[in-house]
Design brief:
This protein has about 200 residues and is mostly helical. Helix content is about 65%, strand content about 0%. The chain has a single domain, classed as Serine Threonine Protein Phosphatase 5, Tetratricopeptide repeat (Alpha Horseshoe), CATH 1.25.40.10. The chain starts with a helix and ends in a 6-residue tail after the last helix.
Length: about 200
């Protein structure tokens, strides 16, 4: 039954992929542009899963590469839609990063459809550790360099964001825009950075 849920989540999140393994423009917009209707749809269909996911209820999804993608989306992406402006957005990041490490160790990001590989790597982009950020840039560069057409465009965009995230962590050691949600005191430099339009993703 849980594998059926995983497959449903993959279809919900990615939809049909083209011959390059790239999701539609409409799907990609949903991933990265705040949409209240999309957030409500996630809550109604998958909100209940987040009560059990931190306890490992769906870890068996990771027995297949595609199932692991669904698990990473569940742990790394859905909380960011469900709990905007709340520290719970990051509550399962460590579990997502663990699944990312397992996927990369097995080379799954190199054999999965490109949009799936994108989200296998996203926990690295979300990590507040420079080593993870450097690794993120390396992996997206590797994927970009082997792609052409829509796949290359997608990876170029991903690499731009990877560099931006990496530069922020290199400068501050953390993402300043998370400070409010995580009840962290911002430094004067972080306050200035955000006031001057620093990315809040």
């Amino acid at each position: 039954m849980t594998e059926v849920i995983a497959n449903g989540l993959l279809n919900f999140w990615f939809g049909a992929l083209d011959s390059d393994g790239v999701a539609s423009a409409a799907k990609q917009k949903q991933w990265f542009v705040k949409d209240d209707a999309f957030d409500k749809s996630i809550k109604s269909q998958y909100g209940s899963l987040m009560e059990l996911a931190p306890m490992g209820a769906y870890d068996r999804w990771s027995l297949t590469p595609e199932g692991r993608v669904a698990l990473i989306v569940l742990l790394d992406q859905l909380p960011r839609n469900l709990y905007r402006g709340n520290a719970r957005s990051f509550y399962t990041d460590a579990k997502a990063q663990f699944q990312n490490r397992k996927a990369v160790e097995a080379g799954e990001h190199l054999s999965l459809p490109l949009s799936y590989a994108y989200f296998v790597l996203m926990p690295l982009m979300h990590a507040e550790h420079i080593e993870a950020q450097d690794e993120c840039v390396r992996h997206f560069t590797q994927l970009r360099d082997r792609e052409s057409g829509r796949g290359r465009i997608m990876m170029e965009n991903a690499l731009t964001f990877a560099h931006t995230h990496r530069d922020i962590i290199a400068r501050f050691g953390r993402f300043p825009h998370r400070n409010f949600e995580m009840n962290r005191e911002s430094s004067a430099a972080e306050i200035e950075f955000l006031a001057n339009g620093g990315p809040t993703f």
